[in-house]
Task: inverse folding
């Protein structure tokens, strides 16, 4: 045990550099996927035929391709058509786009759960689409979408490890690099696993807390 | 005030409104009766632009009702609607439900909107329920909040679509009473209802609708007591003696 702690002390500073990038990738991917996912959901809700087809088509395509392949596509294929991205940028954009499809489904489910009668009542007092969205649908849809949203954020955190495959030196890749030079697989991957757990548990608790708070009102 | 001129409306192949004409004058209360599926709700929804119509024309205070045009917002702020299932905003209190339209649609300052909303809730007998959420209110109370919400827009007319049909029988009276008060203050009203006693007491005119056309219309006393059309007689007989 003391051996594990002693070795951990040497590896941790290196792993922490990876944690920093893991958090950067996660944070920006969450923001990007949320914004894009919201756009897809609103396009679907708009019932304007071309907008609905575009968002539906996009979601179907994105969900049918493994995330890792999407990352390769953005990082290795895009430069061939003149779009050069750093590995970090490619990773964030790839994860953000991939997860926007799942976020859109969370939001869509939240929006569709709102009773149509209240939406008509809102229109009947003269609200515009934008007001109906802001004052009637969103406050309730957020409540409904929050638990699945929290779970999606946790999945993005864990799947940020996929960007290790396009050379972003986040936590998983740092672990691989250290393990390759020290052969101390046991200590290093135990630490890596514990760190992911330490990052995701607070998110799990936060989600559960918000879920309880929102379900009261 | 409201002119409905020869409107037609189909859902798919089924024509549910087949040439309906009527006028509602300022301050008039018109009750619309008729069997289920005859198109009563559809007509009210067309007047408020919640539904499109295929032919004909609806005018509110001289302005054409066009659900696809921006002008529909103006129509809706002048014509409020009360629904069978209340349709309150469940995430807002009674007071907030009533304030919502004035504050966010009409831009009335919050403090003023609040004062007016409180006065309206008092008027419908809910001074103790300002901060209750819809789920904490009975059906009759919810519908009274919905009427206060409609009044808060200071509309020129209010459309009621079977406002008491979803209520337990003992709660019907409190809602009808509020509606009678609103009518007594001179509000222009179109009321779809099966409450014949309300129609007799409050309506200036009753329209009998069947299969998307107005079969008969007249003052309540005449239409409800001495209907001339056999279909109207049959309908009234069934409403008054449901077990026959
Ligand atoms: N959105 C819709 N899509 C298809 N058909 C509809 C739709 N709304 C109404 N209808 C049909 O139009 C006809 C008239 O409906 P409407 O709701 O206006 O009748 P109503 O007189 O209000 O009946 P009720 O007393 O049951 O409320 C019915 O046959 C109904 O099935
Ligand atoms: Mg109806």
Result:
């Amino acid at each position: 045990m003391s051996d594990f702690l002693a070795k951990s002390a040497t590896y941790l500073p290196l792993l922490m550099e990876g944690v920093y990038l893991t958090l950067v990738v996660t944070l920006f991917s969450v923001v990007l996927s949320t914004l894009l996912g919201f756009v897809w959901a609103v396009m679907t809700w708009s019932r304007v035929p071309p907008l609905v087809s575009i968002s539906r088509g996009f979601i179907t395509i994105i969900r049918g391709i493994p995330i890792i392949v999407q990352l390769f596509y953005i990082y290795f294929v895009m430069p061939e058509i003149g779009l050069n991205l750093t590995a970090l940028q490619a990773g964030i954009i790839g994860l953000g786009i991939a997860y926007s499809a799942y976020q859109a489904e969370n939001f869509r489910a939240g929006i569709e759960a709102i009773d149509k009668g209240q939406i008509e009542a809102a229109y009947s007092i003269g609200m515009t689409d934008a007001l109906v969205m802001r004052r009637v649908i969103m406050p309730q849809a957020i409540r409904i979408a929050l638990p699945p949203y929290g779970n999606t954020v946790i999945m993005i955190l864990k799947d940020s490890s996929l960007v290790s495959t396009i050379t972003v030196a986040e936590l998983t890749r740092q672990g691989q690099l250290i393990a390759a030079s020290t052969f101390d697989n046991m200590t290093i991957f135990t630490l890596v696993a514990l760190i992911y757990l330490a990052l995701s548990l607070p998110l799990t608790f936060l989600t559960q807390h918000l879920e309880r708070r929102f379900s009261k009102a | 005030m409201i002119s409905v001129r020869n409107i037609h409306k189909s859902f798919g192949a089924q024509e549910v409104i087949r040439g309906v004409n009527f006028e509602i004058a300022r301050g008039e209360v018109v009750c619309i009766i008729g069997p289920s599926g005859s198109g009563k709700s559809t007509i009210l929804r067309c007047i408020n632009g919640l539904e499109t119509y295929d032919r004909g024309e609806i005018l509110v205070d001289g302005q054409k009702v066009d659900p696809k045009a921006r002008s529909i917002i103006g129509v809706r702020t002048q014509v409020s609607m009360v629904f069978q299932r209340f349709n309150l905003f469940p995430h807002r209190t009674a007071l907030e439900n009533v304030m919502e339209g004035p504050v966010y649609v009409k831009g009335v300052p919050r403090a003023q909107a609040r004062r007016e909303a409180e006065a309206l809730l008092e008027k419908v007998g809910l001074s103790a329920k300002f901060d209750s959420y819809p789920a904490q209110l009975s059906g009759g109370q919810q519908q009274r909040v919905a009427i206060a919400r409609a009044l808060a827009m200071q509309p020129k007319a209010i459309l009621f679509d079977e406002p008491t049909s979803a209520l337990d029988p003992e709660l019907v009276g409190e809602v009808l009473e509020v509606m009678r008060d609103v009518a007594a203050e001179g509000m222009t009203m179109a009321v779809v209802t099966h409450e014949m006693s309300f129609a007799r007491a409050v309506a200036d005119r009753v329209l009998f609708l069947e299969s998307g056309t107005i079969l008969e219309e007249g003052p309540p006393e005449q239409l409800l007591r001495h209907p001339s059309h056999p279909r109207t007689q049959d309908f009234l007989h069934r409403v008054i003696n449901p077990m026959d």
Summary: The mean pLDDT of chain B is 94. The pocket of adenosine-5'-triphosphate (ligand 1) is lined by residues B 11, 16, 34, 36-42 (CB under 6 Å). Chain B touches chain A through 27 residues (CB under 8 Å). The two ends of chain B are 40 Å apart (CA to CA).
